[in-house]
Amino acid sequence: MSADAKGLRTRPIQDLFWTRTGLLLLVLVVVAGTAMWLAGGLDPGLAKNLLTALGTGTLVSAVVGFGQTLITASAAQRAMVTPVIEESRKALRELSAEYRSLNQEFFPTHVFEASTEPDPAFNALIMSDLRETRQLWFRGFSGRYAAARMLLSPAQWEVRAVLADPRERGSISGRARHLARQGGPDADYEKISDTLHQEIRIGLVGLYLARAKCTAIEVTAVPDPPLDRVELFDDCVWITLYSAVAGAPSLYPRTLRFSEGSFIYDMQRSEFARVHAARDAHRFTLTPDTGRAEFLAHFAKITGTPLSEVEFRDLEAQFHRFRHEFTAKAELES
């Protein structure tokens, strides 16, 4: 028997002695006891018989009244209090379900704070999502991390990658300012911009190397990419907040994960559709059959500069060096 059930059974008895009915029963017991005690001290006769009858009758009335009150209290408990308790429990269950629904719609399932090194727990979870998805929609700066993760996973995907257009100065400035805040007052903005251009070139080569993992990779270069990075999977969306002031000096900003049924997921999916339809975006598609010469033509069109075979191999080596360093720090299996 549970503690709640025991409590329901003992409450009518406890309440009984704190009511006027309980007081009346106590008076009857006292009167009955007094009458029988007095009758015991008298000689046989009319007085003794009257006192005995009074005591016996009063005691019987007290016992019957006690039983009737107990039964009535238990019945009242079942008829009135128990339904109220059940209705309260039902209301609480419905309220909890509503709060869970609101949490799923508006609150992240996971939060990873800013850090200066890759978080193994973060990377383990995002790799798990990557293995379970069939579509990967990525919006970021260079695509280096997305390409590295794709090469580490056995899954096959349809990929849409939205990157910064290296020919547009405005597409570089936001990330450059973020990195300049890390470097402090001695940061060289021009050097940072050159590094970012190189990262885009490395990222494009990385996506080309990862093409065999995908049915197709649609690469879109936009002139005004949002500062925050977004990775959209079938069941969730990851948002890395480069725009957040808190943790700005950190290399890896605060990241939030939202489920498929959330408002943020629907909003980001709509944003991808808007970018995909933008007329000022430059795009090309990589497939497992895309050859080196075709990629080099796409590369020259996106970056505005041709890429020789020697330069391609240098970028390839830089990407693999980045991938190995990232894999080791994030504790991912290669």
Characterization of the model:
This protein is an alpha+beta fold and 334 residues long. Helix content is 60%, strand content 13%. An eight-stranded mixed sheet has the order 1-7-6-5-2-3-4-8, sandwiched between helices. β2, α5 and β3 form a beta-alpha-beta unit. α2 packs antiparallel against α3. 24% of the residues are buried. About 2% of the residues have low confidence.
Number of strands: 8
Shape label: rod-shaped
**Portion in helices:** 55-70%
Query: How many helical elements?
Result: 10
Main beta-sheet annotation: 8 strands, mixed
Q: Report how far apart the termini are.
A: 56 Å
Secondary structural class: alpha+beta
Low-confidence stretches: 5-10
Q: What's the pLDDT, averaged over the residues?
A: 81
Q: Brief description of this entry?
A:
This protein has helices at residues 3-16, 20-40, 46-106, 120-132, 144-152, 170-183, 189-209, 263-276, 292-303, 309-330; strands at 110-112, 135-139, 157-164, 214-222, 229-232, 236-240, 255-259, 282-286. The protein has 334 residues and is of the alpha+beta class.
Keywords:
10 helices, alpha+beta, 334 residues, rod-shaped, 8-stranded mixed beta sheet
Write the layout of secondary structure elements.
Elements: H1 3-16, H2 20-40, H3 46-106, E1 110-112, H4 120-132, E2 135-139, H5 144-152, E3 157-164, H6 170-183, H7 189-209, E4 214-222, E5 229-232, E6 236-240, E7 255-259, H8 263-276, E8 282-286, H9 292-303, H10 309-330
Parallel strand pairs: 2-3, 3-4
Antiparallel strand pairs: 1-7, 2-5, 4-8, 5-6, 6-7
Helix pairs in contact: 1-3, 2-3, 5-7, 6-7, 7-10
